[in-house]
Structures are given as structure tokens and as C-alpha cells.
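ingest -> validate -> predict -> emit
validate: passed (alphabet ok, no gaps, 227 aa)
predict: started
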Amino acid sequence: MSTDATPVFLTVRGKYLASSLESCRVIHNDTAGSEAGIAAARALGDLSHKVYAPVVMPQSSAKNGEVLFLDWWQDPKGLMDFFANETVQMQGTKLFTSRDATVWMPARGAFTYNLPAAAHKTERFVGMIRGPIANPEKSLAIFKAADLKAQRTARARGLLSHELFIKLNPPGDSSPMELLGVDLWSDAKGMGEHYADPNEMKTLEGAFSGAPDATVWNQAPGNWSEW
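emit:
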């Protein structure tokens, strides 16, 4: 089936070139986050753009000096056309010393959910787990069983949404299949308790064919250009 008209999820994790996160914010807002940059991205189908900073904790590999962009694009073609632009590529060199930009498709048949936040819960945190998989159906079944079991406890701890994605490799790329899990939280303490709970994490055993990478992020401080 063609994926030309299917929304895709873009993750960009990178080490920023600037001396501080605030300096990175200024550069971002002057380049990709400028009015012209936003208009160019939207014209090619960029539906949303969010910025996150690392939460340094034992359960996360995210470190100070990194930043995370999460985008939804209307289709893969618009995204590829946007990043093929020389101006966009030059902007990237101003922001990052190194980066990993990966495109993901929503995992078909996955157990996912999106719940409203309580009015007083205004903070936002993202937990991600990414790793290689050998069999998508088996991995999604393991996640479903684990997530159904944990849903009530996770919600009480502040979980707002849970989504799963499969890596969309570009033409000619034969790298291993990967799965990405993305959780959105409204409570830092509850999130930390959940990820540190060995009983919750044990239920995911066998979902990945190799060691997964787990990261935790919070809404980046300051006035970042987002849409």
C-alpha cells in the first residue's frame, strides 16, 4: 500500500551547537521557527512542531546538551521535500553538532489511547522507548497485554496518552525494523514512579529483539516557536 497520503511522525533528537538551551532556542526561533520557516514547513504539510528538553534520571539516556523535536506531517513526501531544501539543511547545521532524524508510521493494530488532562495538570513530559524488533505482530501483542494491565495505574500516575510507531525506512535503507513507544504525562513524580517500577517494565520483556533505548523529556522552558 502506498504511504504517500498517510500522516507520519518525525522525531529529531540532537546535541545542540549553542552554549546553552536558551541560546539554542534563540537560533531555532530565528531559523526553523521564524515566520518564514513555519510558513515553508506548513506549506509542505508540517501539522505540528513541539520542543522538549531532557529529564536527567536513571531510567533515561537523555542528557543535558540535547533537545528533542516532535512533528506530525501530513505525508512522507512533503516531509522529504522540506528536508531536501538547502536552506533547511543549512539551518540544521546552525542548530546541531549531531542529530538523529527518524520518520515513523503509526503502528497498525496497536493498543493506543489519548485521555484528557485535569485542569490543574499543566506540565507535560514525554517518555519514549525505542528498539529493534523481529516480529511486529508479536511486539505489538506484548505491548498490548502490558498496557492493558497497566492502564489504570499509569493513568492514576498521570499518563495522558500512549502511542506506538514503526520506523519508516527511506528507499534503499535495509536497517533493522524498529518500534517506538511514546507516552505523554502530566505528572513528573508519577511518571518517575511508573518507569522505576520493575513490575511494570518486566511486562515488556520480549517486545524488542535487542536492548531498547529509553528517554524522558519535558516541555522545553522559554518561548520556543511551536505550532
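The first helix runs from residue 21 to 30.
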